[in-house]
Design goal:
By secondary structure, the chain is of the alpha/beta class. It has 15 helices and twelve strands. The strands form two sheets. It has a seven-stranded mixed β-sheet, covered by helices on one side. It has a five-stranded parallel β-sheet with strand order 10-9-8-11-12, sandwiched between helices. α8 links the parallel β9 and β10. α6 packs across α9 and α7 packs across α8. Bound molecules: 2'-deoxy-thymidine-beta-L-rhamnose (TRH).
């Protein structure tokens, strides 16, 4: 170094951007499941992430060990916290007043308030494309003067996309389903087909069992955590008391971590999934799946199911050998009587595999939700604020 060169100080790495996610558990596991999945991925990208949630109990099985950079904290601990640069309110959960007041204070007198985003529920309905990315200026309340942005996940390039962790599809391809099932004591017997069942209590299990029983090949039913773990074995015993159901076998699984639940979906021939997050994971698994939608009192779920079926069939047209898969989906959701078409679709499930793969490819060609969310935040100009505690 020449004698006159100024002394150099090593460049300090830029502080990791901080993200706060808020989640209220309404019922079931999807609210926490989606929030955790996003939070974990952001932390994996080197961001500093806090997930504030009013019910963290399901974490014990969904995510038994916490990744570096992610803190999952009780909701009320956020009341005294300094807001992060990016704040994600999941599913309109309404942030604590004290926290929003501090967000406002940061924005007062020309300061930089956090980027405040409401992450919405997933739907294929047309309103999603219209509403994605809209600004909602806060005209009253503790956040008066701030902007809140609406971010909608979805199935098209004009939406926020779907959560798809880097390397997910490669991991699914490399997975050895039989070996994985066998290592857990859940291996199918020779010739047995395997399905996973994650369902709400109102699922028409009797009809499902009857339809599976009429098929030539036997089935192993892997029952995920939830109500069907009690109901299905009883129905199966009834069937067997009538001298039927000899080709059906069920096993109750413990609640799995999210990572293992993915592996289960990759391992099965057919996946029955529900709600939001397991529904998306089944699509990434690329195996035939039947979706049980979260039922709403006003019946809005019917339109939501139809919107998805239409989008799905448009992007991945039905295989000629396949049955009427939408008839099965409607029957599984109690939106149509269980019919011979539903039976036939279920019997022809292997033909559905092509459609599932084509759909997965279509989805994989789009940007994933986390990439899009980060680009959205960059566009809105969140800069790290040094010195946050
Ligand atoms: O539990 P859900 O029915 O959640 C629902 C939906 O999100 C719905 O849209 C929402 O309105 C309602 O909650 C309040 O289904 P979902 O969305 O599939 O969430 C289940 C989560 O649990 C998902 O992240 C996968 C995870 N899971 C495991 O980690 N291990 C398991 O063994 C199983 C069965 C699930």
């Amino acid at each position: 170094m020449p004698a006159h060169a100024p002394p150099t100080t090593p460049a300090m790495p830029a502080p990791a951007q901080r993200w706060d996610l808020f989640c209220r558990v309404i019922d079931n596991y999807g609210d926490l499941g989606v929030s955790l999945r996003l939070a974990r991925e952001l932390a994996g990208l080197g961001l500093q992430v806090r997930l504030w949630c009013d019910d963290l109990r399901a974490l014990a099985w969904m995510q038994p060990t916490m990744p570096v950079g992610l803190a999952c904290l009780p909701w009320n601990d956020s009341l005294g916290a300094e807001p992060a640069e990016v704040v994600i309110e999941t599913f309109g959960c309404e942030l604590p007043t004290a926290y929003v007041e501090r967000m406002s204070t940061l924005g007062a007198h020309g300061g930089t308030p956090p980027i405040w985003i409401n992450l919405e529920y997933l739907s294929a309905e047309p309103y999603v494309e219209r509403s994605h990315g809209l600004r909602s200026p806060q005209l009253s309340g503790p956040g008066r003067g701030l902007d809140k942005w609406f971010f909608y996940p979805g199935f098209t390039s004009r939406t926020g996309g779907l959560l798809r962790e880097a390397g997910l599809l490669q991991a699914a391809h490399a997975h050895d389903g039989l070996a994985w099932l066998a290592a857990r004591g859940w291996a199918p017997a020779p010739g047995e087909q395997v399905l996973s069942l994650f369902a709400y209590p109102q699922a028409p299990l009797r009809e499902l069992l009857r339809a599976l029983d009429e098929q030539a090949r036997p089935w192993l039913l892997l029952l995920c955590h939830g109500a069907p773990q009690q109901a299905l074995p009883e129905l199966l015993a009834e069937l067997q008391a009538e001298g039927r159901g000899q080709h059906l076998r069920s096993l109750a699984l413990p609640p799995l971590s999210q990572a293992d639940y993915d592996r289960l979906l990759w391992s099965c021939d057919l996946n029955l999934v529900r709600g939001e997050d397991s529904f998306v994971r089944a699509q990434w698994a690329g195996q035939p799946f039947v979706w049980q939608i979260y039922a709403q009192d006003d019946g809005a779920h019917g339109a939501k199911l139809e919107a998805f079926l239409a989008t799905f069939e448009h992007a991945a047209p039905r295989h000629a050998a396949g049955g009427d898969w939408p008839a099965l989906a409607r029957a599984w959701n109690g939106l149509q009587a269980w019919s011979p078409q539903a039976d036939l679709a279920l019997a022809r499930w292997p033909a559905q595999r092509d459609q599932a793969r084509q759909w997965r490819e279509h989805l994989a060609s789009q940007l994933d939700l986390t990439q899009q969310l980060r680009a959205f935040v960059a566009d809105k100009g969140a800069a790290p604020r040094p010195g946050l505690g």
